[in-house]
Amino acid sequence: MATGVCVCGVLFLWGLVTSPATRLPLRHGGPPTEVSYPNRPFTSVAVTKLPVRQICVSASVWRKNLAAAGPKKYTEEFIKKQVEEFEIGKRHLANMMGEDPETFTQEDIDKSIAYLFPSGLFEKRARPIMKHPDQIFPKQTAVQWDADRRPFHFLFYTGKQSYYSLMHDVYEKILAIERHQDKMRNKGLFTSETKQISLFGSRWLVKEEMEELLVENISDQDYMRFIQLMERLLSMPYGSLEEEFVQKFRRQLEVQSSKQEIAPLQYDSQGIAFSVADGRRKSAKASITLRDSGSGNITINGRNYLQYFSVLQDREQLMFPLHFVDMLGRFDIEGSVEGSGHSSQGGALRLAISRALLSFVSEGEVEKMRQAGLLTADPRIKERKKPGQVGARKKFTWKKR
Fold first, then answer.
1. Distances (CA, A) of 56 to 10, 53, 62, 300, 339
2. pLDDT bucket at 77, cuts 50 / 70 / 90
3. Given pLDDT bands bounded at 50, 70 and 90, which one contains residue 57?
4. Are residues 299 and 366 in the same domain?
5. I need a surface site. Which of 39, 223, 247, 369 has the fewest CB within 10 A?
6. 163 with 111, same domain?
7. Which residue has the higher pLDDT, 49 or 348?
8. What angle do CA 327, 333, 338 make, to 5 degrees?
């Protein structure tokens, strides 16, 4: 039985090594030792010390190697086990909440977790969650080689087989379109005025979405090469033949202006049209009455807006909606506002005026106002003060003594 100790990276062993014929005293790390063999024809042999050094790896090199190895791989058995545990936990949670496990949805799970484990943490990712394993564990590529360790795909050794396979497919589509164009020329039926793929209301997949689709990391240059190749396909006269293929890499944009609610015009006793609207920004709340056939008078809280707002920027905020639709001087505006500071009050009044103008403009101008941001409320609020600081960001003055 040999024992040892490691000193300064050198491993020293000592003890006895037992054999059927002899007992050998062993020492590594010391001077040469004579060992007797009573049952052998020779008398002794010299054992030279051989220091055994440990291979030490720094923490930075270890982290670098770990990052190069890529994300942790999860086996199918592991994922199946996690899914089974999730289903069991979901049934237990449904029973605790008095719900039917068969109709217990993910939304019900989220509400139950928030009720049972209330958390005041600002970062939502730090709060307790219970999600399906497919949402927790990242997607990963399947095994790409057979029992003999021979890769299935001919582009395996490129390091990005999914990406280069996709580029290969796109180029094959381009060649197929060119062959079709040649056939049409030979028949005398070629024309450049063919049906084009409609890209209205859609966009290309962004780089992160492409990586998720390919289950591979790609560089910005790789992404730009793919987009350029797809644009080349779209520019071809008969590119519409591959419309189904192109749409796989596009996403529909959400329609923002789903019919803005426009209040009908109201009329006073003299038959003058007017509209009323509200607006807010931070803690400021504003209410506006917009009267047609006016002289351009604007009063805020009973005072002329030039007297109420001393800062030029606040006055410009107030007038911008009228200037945008080219209706300066047409309306008389009566407004009231309270709360917050002068800048927030100006923003609240601007939103209220923009909403009141909707009753006087056409649908096309409504869309232009929406695109200009006049109909979107500013969601920003005052940042909270932090403990141990003067304010939200400002720190106390540091003094050495």
1. 11, 9, 10, 75, 65
2. confident
3. low
4. yes
5. 39
6. no
7. 348
8. 130
Answer yes or no: is 383 within a domain.
Answer: no
Express each pLDDT in 276-328 by its tens digit: 999 999 999 999 999 998 888 999 999 999 999 999 999 999 999 999 999 99
**Within 10 Å of residue 86's Cβ, how many Cβ atoms?**
17
Same domain, 198 and 120: no
Lowest mean pLDDT segment, chosen from 13-27, 141-155, 251-265:
13-27
Q: Is 142's pLDDT higher than 90?
A: no
Residue 60 lies in a domain: no
Residue-level pLDDT at 294: 87
In a domain, 59, yes or no: no
Rounded to the nearest angstrom, the gap between the alpha carbon of residue 349 and the centroid of all alpha carbons in its chain is: 34
Quote the number of domains for the chain. Answer: 4
- Asked if residue 358 and residue 271 are part of one domain, the reply reads yes
Q: Note whether 301 and 338 are same-domain residues.
A: yes
Residues spanned by the domain of 90: 76-136
Q: Report the amino acid identity of residue 316.
A: E
Can you give the pLDDT at residue 122?
84
- pLDDT the model gives residue 397: 94
Whether the full predicted model's pTM is greater than 0.85, yes or no, is no
